[in-house]
Amino acid sequence: MSKQQLVVIGNGMVGHNFLTKIVEAGGLDQYEITTFCEEPRAAYDRVHLSEYFGGRSADDLSMVEGDFFNDNGITLHLNDRAVRIDRENKIVHSSQGLALQYDKVVLATGSYPFVPPVPGHDREHCLVYRTIEDLEAIMASGQQSKVGAVVGGGLLGLEAANALKQMGLETHVVEFAPRLMMVQVDEGGGALLRRKIEDLGVSVHTSKNTQNIGDGERCRHKMEFADGEVLETDLILFSAGIRPRDDIAREAGLKVGERGGIEIDNCCVTSDDDIYAIGECALWDQRIFGLVAPGYQMAQVAVDQLLGKSESVFTGADMSTKLKLMGVDVASIGDAHGNTPGALTYEFSDGPNQIYKRIVISEDSKKLLGAVLVGDASDYGNLLQVYLNGIDLPEHPDGLILPQRDGASSAAIGVDALPETAQICSCHAVSKGDIAAAIDGGACCMGDVKEATKAATGCGGCAALTKQVLDAELMQRGVEVNTDICDHFPYTRQDLYNLVRVGEIKSFQELLDKHGKGHGCEICKPAVANILASCWNEHILQPMNVGLQDTNDIYLGNMQKDGTYSIVPRVAGGEITPEKLIVLGEVAKEYGLYTKITGGQRVDLFGARLEQLPEIWRKLVDAGFETGHAYGKSVRTVKSCVGSTWCRYGVDDSVGLAIDIEHRYKGLRSPHKLKFAVSGCTRECAEAQSKDIGVIATENGWNLYVCGNGGMKPRHADLFASDLDRKTLVQYIDRILMFYIRTADRLQRTSVWMDNLKGGLDYLREVIIEDKLGIGQELEEEMAHVISTYECEWKAAIEDPEKVKRFRSFINSEAQDENILFVEERDQIRPATPEEKIELKQSA
Amino acid sequence: MSIKVEVCQLDDLVPYSGCCALVEGQQVALFRVDEGETVYAIGNYDPIGDANVLSRGLLAEVNGVITVASPLYKQHYCLTTGQCLDTENVRVPAYAVSVEDGAVYVSIPQADDKAKAA
What residues does each domain of chain A span? Predict the structure, then answer.
């Protein structure tokens, strides 16, 4: 049987989701697929579009995994728009003149931003916010503007306002309705949201009906409102809602709604049986779903229907949302406005902390109908589950939103009460049952669950809930996870850290005597050595510490496969003088070392024998070098781009900051290695977003990113805080690093630490920025101690004859190890292979 | 026949750590496992990593057995027998050690013994 031709019109988020789903479902056996994409790039994440301003690139936002189209034999026509469907002859025509025969068509044309037909709406510097091209236009316009106004105070409007704010513009939001986020939020929530947004320096103008846009006096434009007031601005961004892109369907004679939208039935089929419509262009039961999750549900239904699973239907979708707008938590569930007849409401308002919560419940007080949360959306997951699963409310429903004081029992519905079908992750449609199945399949931590189910890997909003389900399920199975570090200590690494810190324990033997048993092993010894160094910062080669150090630390060098060492002097920020470069070259030449440039902007010298290390380091120290700690679980490098000093695009002095940061934290030992980077502008040449600590210059200061990782399992760093001054930046880094050292597991990189941190990024912000635990000063003092006691380990080692003594191949001979042999390759040495060694020994 | 060779003073050995001695041309890894006179000796050659490094490994107690963990790939070698605990058919030589009047002696098979054995 020859394959049917399937044409997918539109490669946005939903269109692409349809493609990935039909591929996963094995639909390629039945269909040959072609897709049209009018934009110059394939599908990208529009939900996180505003992060483009925060430094994420178009590539970062891409939703296309690897070579998806080629790998699956799907033909993608970029920059080509499907313009006409000839239903009689079953042909799709494109703007580039293609004419494709089809058996089935899926319309995923999405929506376009509505621009009110106000006179002057088409002037230059009047823009919309939908595509990457739009964002580029906004950035270009922003550079020639001082003031920006967003028309529309809905969800997207506030996102857009945030973008203007990030560009350093004086920002205004103009809303036709009497309050912000009219659709999702009630009056009380809207008022609080407004206050919070105004506190951030954005002017909010509500009940403003724009009548005309003309030439301004101080700014480019003057907006005139119906009430006679005016607003001058250089840049206008329309974000007044979306309209379904139904023109192609309309022209083809398909049924469309009165106010737009391609009508579909429960199978996502339009009025033509061979044409489907999904996502924001589709009208189901006279409703348009302007969120991505319902679009994905429709994509699933369309895939199922096309593959003959007729039982799969779309029956509407929940429009509850939770998001962070300009740092303000906002969430809305179900009937947020209390429109249901007889509905009762409970409200909680906390003035000093700017928190507003409201729940709407049924007349009989049995069921939750809706909720609004502003300023603190931590109840969202719990409330949403109660709402979606129709769980009976407790006797006092207000307990669901009242703050939990110490000692009070929680009114929250425990995850145990959730049915197996309860959807935990809506991005990837993962149910509680799916998580349980993953655990039965061997998953036993958040990382495993994420990998097995994809839960919490979309928007991440369900991370806390997923963790709760995981913990509860593990507990139900009677799993008592043994978190002891090893046989010698019945404690976790965090426990050992606290025992050392609180008990002021200064040596492994003392810790072992008081809290452990036996003699220790290669797990606990280096872990304790590392904790001792983080806390007290004494030399790691003190006699009592020597026996604890791992392979590299014990000789302050990185052992290579043949037992020789590599040497990496610190080159802070990657800045080095010609004189010092020459020294490195001369030392390498004198000792015949192999040289290579590292990823951290330093020079690595390979092939030094144990007994050569002290003399080589003496030369390096004399020339002004210090140890680079490349051998330690410690701060490695602060990579930097050249920054504003030289670069035409640089916004700030990234090299200067990188050097300062590197000198501040050098020598700090931590549960795992730490890498930093500083970029001088959003072009991000230093790749700061792949580092544990990343800093990127903005017009207004520095953006701080945390917990990124390259390596085996790359992770993009999270934006922790924006537009910081240097003092605050350093204060936050001090606290974050010490909090990590205090709470991470042994050999746990910051990325994994973050993934397992209960409460995630928000919690970290509360601890670091708001000092929720009241430990901020303590953390800073601990860091200050480490900084004030810094010494170059190599300088101290070569000045101490007792320490130098250990750097000998043989305790009783000056001979060299005869098994270390090199051959030449590309004009440098490399270790000889076993066969080459035999040859070399024979010829000798 | 083996001969007993004085290699160093006990004070030269840092407690809880290892070092290497050249004894009759053989590389011998010496470990002082406490602050007293308990010293063990095994071959310095790591047959799995193909490098002379065992003396630079960490002392590790595994189920009550005192071992050294290879600094290269972390296999454990029993300090009294030289047996590798992770791979049954791998074993390194173990040597008798004595401490007399503050001096450390290692007993090592003589070259002609080895020739006979081979």
Answer: 4-111+244-306, 126-240, 416-481, 493-550, 633-791
The answer on pLDDT for A35 being more than 90 is yes
User: Model confidence over A42-86: pLDDT tens digits?
Assistant: 999 887 787 777 777 888 889 898 889 999 999 999 999 999 999
Lookup: tokens for A135 = 């964002």
Indicate the average pLDDT of chain A.
90
Q: Express each pLDDT in A391-409 by its tens digit.
A: 888 888 888 888 765 433 3
Q: Specify the CATH number of the domain A416-481.
A: 1.10.10.1100
CB atoms within 10 A of CB A780: 15
Whole-angstrom distance between the N-terminal and C-terminal Cα of chain A? 72
The per-residue pLDDT for range A708-747, each reduced to its tens digit, is 998 777 889 999 999 999 999 999 999 999 999 999 988 8
Which uninterrupted H or E stretch holds A543?
helix A543-546
pLDDT at A408: 39
* Nearest one of A325, A282, A303 to A159, comparing CA atoms: A325
Structure confidence by residue, pLDDT tens digits, A489-547: 999 999 999 999 999 999 999 999 999 999 999 999 999 999 999 999 999 999 889 99
Say what the pLDDT of residue A411 is: 43
Q: Does A804 touch chain B (CB under 8 A)?
A: no
Q: In B, which residues are within 8 Å of A611 by CB distance?
A: none
User: Any residues with CB less than 8 A from the CB of A368 and at least 6 apart, and which?
Assistant: A333, A334, A359, A360, A361, A362, A383, A386, A387, A391, A393, A397, A400
Asked if the Cβ–Cβ distance from A526 to B58 is below 8 Å, we say: yes
Beta-carbon count within 10 A of A212 CB: 14
Distance from CA of B113 to the nearest CA of A (A): 23
pLDDT tens digit sequence for A610-663: 999 999 999 999 999 999 999 999 999 999 999 999 999 999 999 999 999 999
Query: Which residues share a beta bridge with A828?
Result: A825
**Optimal mutation site among B40, B50, B58, interface A, most CBs of chain A within 10 A:** B58
Kindly give the residue spans of alpha helices, DSSP state H, lying in chain B. Answer: 111-117
Yes or no, beta carbons of B61 and A521 under 8 Å apart: yes
Question: Which pLDDT band, with edges at 50, 70 and 90, does A462 fall under?
Answer: confident
A819 with B45: Cβ contact below 8 A: yes
Which whole-number Å values give the CA distances from A425 to A130, A451, A459, in the listed order?
Answer: 26, 13, 9
Question: Which chain B residues are within 8 Å of A518, Cβ to Cβ?
Answer: 61, 64
CATH of A4-111+244-306 among 3.40.50.20, 1.10.260.40, 3.50.50.60, 3.90.10.10: 3.50.50.60
For residues A678-690, give the mean pLDDT.
94
Neighbours of A7 (CB within 10 A): 27
Q: Is the ipTM of this complex over 0.90?
A: yes
Print burial letters for A36-46: b (CB count within 10 Å at least 16), e (below 16): bbbbebbbbbb
Provide the sign of the torsion angle of the four alpha carbons A58, A244, A303, A101, taken in this order: negative
Q: Which CATH number does A633-791 carry?
A: 3.30.413.10
* Residues in chain A closer than 8 A to B21 (CB atoms): 810-813
More confident of the two residues A272 and B87: A272
| Equal fold, A126-240 vs A416-481 | no
Contacts with B74 from chain A: Cβ below 8 Å: 522
- B52 vs A: CB within 8 A: yes
CATH number of A126-240: 3.50.50.60
Choose from A489, A524, A548, A551 for mutation: most chain B CBs within 10 A: A551
Q: Which domains are assigned to chain B? A: 2-117 (2.102.10.10)
Angle separating helix axes A524-536 and A493-502, nearest 10 degrees: 40
